[in-house]
Design goal:
Radius of gyration: 19 Å
Shape: globular
Strand content: under 5%
Number of strands: 2
């Protein structure tokens, strides 16, 4: 098995912020998510000190709208997707205290619909991704009591399919990304008993292909990002021993750009910060040496989650 090119990945992430090219331009609207992917990767690799914390926190707060939600960048519209990224970034830096917690939590709670689902923003798109984000974000802010958790859970359960998986809405196709969102939300709310763990575990372990990589749906190509979506779900339902961890780790390491840093979706493809994060996060779940442990439900380093829920120093 190859080695993780840690230093090159760190330099790749640090260099992204300085780029001024077409790729940066077309990603301008989701810069908040990009910042979360890059900064969490640095923290997992224990290199977060290379970043100007105050500058990042200042920029994050400039992205907050008067409604309480956060946008993907300064001057853009707020959305629940970028609100969770903003909260996660502030959590990484132990700066949640700069937030008006009521303002942010009221924005999220206001997106819950009568059936328990959540809209992504004022325009009303509904998706189980948004259910997970709302539950995860409010949990991190200690404000889960601001929503109807029972209705939220019942809506997620209504999206469960006969194959054991979950879709974006009731009756929608099972997809590994949506499964992570639903399993993560059910884990955070203590509702994993709604899942048929053997049935879902079988569907998830079937995502591993001959190369060792994981795909998101049957008959699709493997992709490094599913090293997170599938693996975290398997861990939360205690079925991770149903796949080959060594083969998966080898697949992720084969997707590295060993000269310039970064990780791609598949070997020899172009790298990006999204797949770099999910590759490193996947290796963290696989307990690869030299990488901090990541929480499979909150998608944050375990020490950050411990600090939020168990006090300043967290657990050993």
């Amino acid at each position: 098995m190859g080695e993780l090119e840690t230093e090159k990945h760190v330099q790749y992430i640090l260099a992204i912020e300085k780029k001024d090219d077409f790729e940066s331009l077309v990603m301008d609207h989701l810069r908040m998510s990009g910042a979360y992917w890059g900064l969490t990767t640095l923290d997992l690799l224990e290199k977060l000190e290379n970043v100007d914390k105050e500058a990042v926190v200042s920029w994050v707060m400039k992205c907050q709208d008067d409604c309480g939600g956060f946008a993907g960048n300064v001057g853009h519209d707020p959305h629940i997707l970028y609100t969770i990224s903003a909260v996660q970034i502030l959590a990484l830096f132990d700066k949640l205290d700069v937030l008006d917690i009521d303002k942010v939590s009221n924005y999220i709670a206001g997106l819950q619909n009568e059936d328990g689902s959540f809209s992504g923003d004022m325009w009303g798109e509904i998706d189980t991704r948004f259910s997970y984000i709302a539950i995860c974000c409010l949990s991190l802010l200690h404000c889960l009591d601001k929503i109807n958790v029972e209705k939220a859970v019942n809506y997620i359960v209504s999206c469960k399919n006969l194959d054991g998986g979950f879709g974006c809405t009731p009756g929608a196709e099972s997809h590994a990304g949506q499964i992570f969102c639903c399993v993560g939300a059910l884990a955070i709310t203590g509702s994993l008993h709604h899942i048929d763990k053997d049935l879902l575990g079988w569907w998830l372990c079937e995502r591993q292909v001959k190369s060792g990589g994981l795909n998101g749906r049957p008959e699709k190509l493997p992709d490094v990002c599913y090293s997170w979506w599938v693996l975290s779900s398997l861990i939360m339902i205690d079925r991770v021993h149903w796949i080959s961890k060594d083969k998966l780790a080898r697949f992720i390491l084969d997707c590295q750009d060993k000269e310039n840093g970064g990780i791609s979706d598949r070997p020899d493809d172009a790298v990006d910060v999204f797949h770099t994060y999910f590759g490193v996060a996947g290796l963290s779940l696989l307990e690869y040496p030299g990488i901090k442990a990541i929480d499979p439900a909150y998608a944050l380093p375990v020490d950050v989650v411990n600090r939020i829920f168990f006090g300043r120093k967290g657990l050993p």
